Amino acid sequence: MKRKWIRGVFAVLMLAFCFVISGCGACTACAVGCGACYFLIHSDGIMDTGHLGYTLNEDGQSYSVYWTDFAYAPARREVVIPAEYRGLPVTKIADCGFYPVAFANGRSGIVKITLPDTIVEIGEEAFAQGEFEEIKLPDSIVKIGADAFRSSQLKTIDLPDKLESLGAGAFSFCDNLKEIEFPASLKVIQDETLEGTAVETVVIPEGVEEIQEEVFSYCDNLKELHLSSTVKSFGNFGDDSSIERISVAENNPYFKSIDGNVYSKDGTKFIQYAAGKTETTFELPSEVTMIQRKAFKYSTLESIVFPENSRLTEVEASAFVGCRNLQMMVFPDTLQKISISAISSLDWSGLAEYENFYYVSTVSNKYFAPVGQIETVSESLTFHSQTKYVPANLAIKGAPTEILIPEGVTEIGANLIGYCPSLQRVTIPKTVAKIDKIAFYAGNVGCKFEVDPENEAYKSVDGVLYTKDGQKVL
Question: Model confidence over 292-304: pLDDT tens digits?
Fold first, then answer.
């Protein structure tokens, strides 16, 4: 009798303890497997909440819910989330709330989850690696956190019409997910949202304004993509993209599609090549003046042709990254600016060589811009006399005592050289019109600048570099 009385008192005390910590928010610890709630749930049947734990939200007027039964994983289990707890609404599935990494053998055994219409938010990684194939999301949900369903077994999902925020990687590597429809309430599709899924066709609805980076990486079944009239910007669609055709709504004021590729509305910027195309040759339209960042990423093209009347002036960073079949190109003479990373993954054997550097070519200028260093520079660094542009991030290696910028160079990009205490002199010709503010490392205190007196943009006074109007550069 005495033993039963002691057990009863102990159970009541533990129940009170759980009540306190769950109400104050400390019970969050249970979500990572402290075991306190598990003990109470299974101790003589004193409390049975269906193995759910609750944390009071910051507003003090609602709760987040999570799973607490980490000890074992039965073959099949269904979970019903209640609408209320202690008289207050349950409004959120906690971050990592049902993430099975904490379960035995990494499996939860949960095959069905029913959510009440009080839920407004699904937290980050809330259902990551879930074993359920479908889940009905109530219309009340306005936010889904990053990686919320990552690597789950979902086959279908209907997103709520009022959804305002869909976190990065929300459905990444749900390799059974074949279709999805984004609601018009969504303004941004974040990074890697559908990475590694089995989606076959995606229509971006009216209302979506931005598509971020790598949204469709490794979507092997995705062949077509449609951009609505409201899309204002989008990043690269992703690694190993299989998209063969990208269409754009005719009334989109920012972009247009030609032969399944995306251009700016006026046709002067080449935005995105459909990397899943099987063609080996592509001719850039003559009106294009800029190839945008990552425009040809992971295409299987073998050659890109520039017409004689090409107006191309600039190639942005990583424009041809991952183009494994593409040989080095000879750019048109109209080219004025190119990023080193634009061609860094191409066959370097196609580049011109001069002393310490590789150079990219234009039709009539073999040494348009240095884009890679062959060997370290020990003393004087002299670029080829035909050089027109010194790109950013050349990051000269070695310990040169002087750098001679040749006549004809018009622009010097950032990070031409880093810390180099041996550097004593940099000469800048009259043709240079722009120098990046971090082209030369400020710590090279012994370095003196010599600017041609006829330069209209810069001048040097006692070895210090100034703009022509007297603003100190370095």
Answer: 999 999 899 999 9
Q: What is the spatial distance between Cα 458 and Cα 302, in angstroms, rounded to a whole number?
A: 43
DSSP string, 69-98: --S---S-EEEE--SEETTEEEEEEPTTTT
Q: Which residues contact 123 (CB under 8 A, 6 or more apart)?
A: 64, 92, 93, 94, 95, 96, 97, 145, 148
Q: Which residues of 375-408 are buried (b: 16+ CB within 10 A; e: fewer)?
A: eebeeebbbbebbbbbbbebebeeebbbbebbeb
Separation of alpha carbons 393 and 452, rounded Å: 24
As a 3-state breakdown, the chain gives helix, strand, coil percent values, each rounded to 5, of: 10, 25, 65
> 64 pairs with which residues across the strands?
55, 92
Give the domain ranges of the chain. 2-265, 351-467
- Given the candidates 1.10.357, 3.40.1820, 3.80.10, 2.60.40, the CATH classification of the domain at 2-265 is 3.80.10
Q: Which residue has the tokens 């080219």?
A: 335
Which uninterrupted H or E stretch holds 340?
helix 340-343
Q: pLDDT digits over 297-323, tens only?
A: 989 999 999 999 999 999 998 899 888
As a whole number of angstroms, the distance between CA 205 and CA 265 comes to 19
β-bridge mates for residue 402, sequence order? 380, 425
Q: What are the structure tokens assigned to 256, written together?
A: 């247009």
CA distance 172 to 213: 13
- In three-state secondary structure terms, 28 is helix
Cα–Cα distance between 393 and 28 in angstroms, integer?
A: 47
